[in-house]
Amino acid sequence: MRIDKFLSECKVATRSETAKAVRRGAVLLDGVPVKRADTPVDPETSVVTYCGEVVNYRRYTYVILNKPDGYVSATEDKREKTVLDLLDEEVTKFEVFPCGRLDKNTLGLMLLTNNGPLAHTLLSPKRHVEKVYRFECAKAPSEGDIEALQNGVDIGGYVTKPCTVKMTGDTSGEITLSEGKYHQIKLMFEAVENRILYLERIRFAFLTLGDLERGEWRYLTEEEIKKLEGLGK
Ligand code: URA
């Protein structure tokens, strides 16, 4: 990869800015000023320095966010606040988008990335990526309701795939899905004449919130990225 492309992909400098910086001797490859903006670099092994700062190459950006109430899972919206409003410019400049949707009033774990092919794969129903939600419903579901939810219910012309429901109180529990239809859990509970009052995603694949506070985000670790990208293979 050319060094000017490398720097523009890393959102450090445009190609013309790199050309100027090269002329000033401000672009180094492995500690040595480069003479040309088309100097080849190996993004994995080269140490590139731009105006005194070492530039780390990141092909894709991944963050997890603990979504608060009241934000829509979109990249832009005319009226509503979007989950991107919770991220910093250092992340949004890489044009990340939510990998799957949570309703405006659903809270919890949201993965955002600019890796389109991986997001597509992770959301494919064939992948069976597990999503775990903590819920509170309006009334205690019967044994029969729980069995129906687990076996599959009709949510308006679509019968949901088998899932797991674990009650943790009379009206609270955790539901594990391996698919993600629009408003799925709310519609599933309506199908058994109940109603969801609170919904929070607490796991997406192997990712959990840990000590991430509501409204906070963090980058995935290298290890998490490797594992996540492995799920896409
Ligand atoms: N199911 C829902 O009904 N809403 C969500 O936000 C996620 C799953």
Describe the structure.
This protein has 233 residues and is α+β, with helices and mostly antiparallel strands. It is 24% helix and 26% strand. It contains seven helices and 15 strands. Strands 5, 8, 9, 10, 11, 12, 13, 14 and 15 form a nine-stranded mixed beta sheet that branches. A four-stranded antiparallel beta sheet has the order 2-1-3-4. A hairpin with a 4-residue loop joins strand 11 and strand 12. Helix 1 packs across helix 2. The longest helix is centred in the N-terminal third of the chain and has 10 residues. The protein is elongated. The protein starts with a helix and ends with a helix. The mean pLDDT is 95. The structure holds uracil. The site of uracil (URA) has 8 residues, from helix 6. The site of uracil has 8 residues, from helix 6.
Question: What is the fold's blueprint, element by element?
Answer:
Blueprint (H helix, E strand, L loop, with lengths): L2 H7 L5 H10 L2 E3 L2 E2 L14 E3 L2 E3 L6 E6 L3 E2 L8 E2 L6 H4 L4 E2 L8 E7 L2 H8 L7 E7 L5 H9 L12 E4 L4 E6 L6 H8 L4 E9 L2 E2 L8 E3 L2 H10 L2
Parallel strand pairs: 6-7, 9-13
Antiparallel strand pairs: 1-2, 1-3, 3-4, 5-9, 5-15, 8-9, 10-12, 10-13, 11-12, 13-14
Bound molecules: uracil.
